[in-house]
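Summary for the funding panel

The consortium committed to producing paired sequence-structure records for every protein in the target list. Below we show the first two records in order, beginning with the earlier of the two.
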Amino acid sequence: AYCIYTFLSFLIAVLGRGDRNAVIDLLAGHADHMKPPLRLCGLLDGGKKYDDDPRAKAEAVLFQCQLFAMQFVLLRPLTSVALVISNALHTGSRDYTSPQFYIIWIINGSIFVAFSGLVKFYHLVREDLKWCNPFPKFLCIKGVVFMTFWQRMVITLIASTALENRFEDDRERREWIQQAQSFLVCIEMLVFAIVHCYVFPVEEWQNDYRPKQHKSNIVDNLALKDFAKDLKYIMKSRKARKRALNKMNREKVRTSDLYLDEIELAQQTKQGGDD
């Protein structure tokens, strides 16, 4: 949750160089195709109020995007505590009669709201942030969230359906889910740590930085293309050597057959002379 909010703050800081008013002025320039902020319990008044004031509209949209991301930060610890308490008090099935069912739905709704604020802000300023290539950065953040939350739901679904007969009781099933999730996250976070080195390069923040026309990627740096090319060459060379060896063996067999035929013919000729 905090990762999502800090990423939004990162985009705002990059866009305005630390100046929030600069971000608002920039958003005001996109007011023509900017949707008004949603109505939210009286905190924001959507619609006509901002039609004649682009800057007020931009400030309200920015505030709402931050609010959408921040609610997840504030709500997630509460839902985590609620899940711990619910798991201790209710150990039965996780259907609609269990408190865990509703807590998970609240978490899902909170995640959806947080990402809707982040995506809305990104769509408004994607051209202005094009120089720092924000989309791969967004995918990394989205990937971390997916691997730490949605993946667990998929594992839980698999354990409750395809592998249901494998477990003796519900406790063993939950332990397997936790072990599988922890094992996969350890591997995935290593991959994400490597990917972050390429999507968040330090040279982007140097004073004389200029976007490159062709950026190196992890495939180029690990020389995977060269490895694949060499592997293809080796496999072709191996096949060529095998074909050459087979041809050589056939020639040897043919030569041996001719030699034997000559010996046999000589013996027949000698035997005919003796007769």
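The next record, for a separate protein in the list, is shown here:
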Amino acid sequence: DPQKMALPLVLSLGLVEGFRSHSVLGQTLGNMGNITGPSYRVNSTFKIDLDRDPRDRWTEAVEAKKEFLQATLEDVISELPASVQKLIPFVEWMLDDAEGFLPEPYREEVKGIAEVAGVPPGQVLIANIYYELASGCTGLVAIDPEKKTAIHARNLDYGLPGLQNLTVNVEFFRNGSIVAKGTTYVGYVGLLTGASPMGFSVQLNERDTKNGSVWDNAFEALFKGGAISGFLLRDLLVSGMSFSEAIQVAQTRHIISPCYYIFAGPGNEAAVVTRERQSAVDTMYMSDTRNENVWFLLQTNYDHWEKPPADDTRRNYTAAHMRDLGQGAVSVQSVFDLVSAWPTQNAETTYTTVMTSSFDTSSPGEGVYFTYTRNN
């Protein structure tokens, strides 16, 4: 049906131009400003029961953060051109009729969040697309020499003010058992950071490429059936996959945007999967001879075989700080302190999460998983 195809095309073009004009998307990944405020430990952990109706799963989290979510959505929408704001009611059509664009259970979860927050579902859908567009990230995996477990630290850098107020830890349950831990912004139903009781953790980093524009991503989602990258990450965590199985899916599943999946696995295992939309173009393991850092794995937003741009110093500074630390001094605290230092933490950092791969099915309460919001 030409009319059915034309509507998402018009909506996408309008939204793309609106996102492109947004000040956040105009910032470069090299905006390594000074740290602007204190850090606070995230004490809010919400249970997401996958046996509940999808519309009800996020109720407690949304009720707790309702005012902050409304304010953030208002900020995002208000900076879009008036012509694009007029399209928002039609975006809701995509929740029901754009087959494959937003699969279940995410479609019903978005609707449930909107109902509890008292906002149009189209706004929540836009936010779920928006969070994938302009983030900068640092991922670091190092091995604790005493416990022989991987310590996985991630900073998520984002230019949208107020996301600290929406940052929470979540625990996904099925049949009464925990199947994943994660950190997310309330209102976003995917995950950008998380750990599985199957013995691995994973984060998503934006990949800075020439073909990673907003329009490219929207086109891939609407017309080629690509999965939203953060939804795939959540699927990897909650599905009960092993470390090797999750890497294989991350290498092969069709997604809407180029990105990196950074894994820490059992023992000394870790990997960075470099993605184009159709499949991986590279996978580098901790033990790979190409890993010049040898005993740690580091990934920001640029391919490891390319030099980062001169105005983004995160990779070089973080690697230098790790070498100064030394392998024998690696611990949860020392790694946390290192990613808390500028420019690894910078003016754009919204949160830091530290995880260990000792979170397993036999003792899910053990291991480490904590988050601090930054620049509060």
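Regarding this second record: The longest strand covers residues 135-143. DSSP finds 13 helices and 14 strands in the chain.
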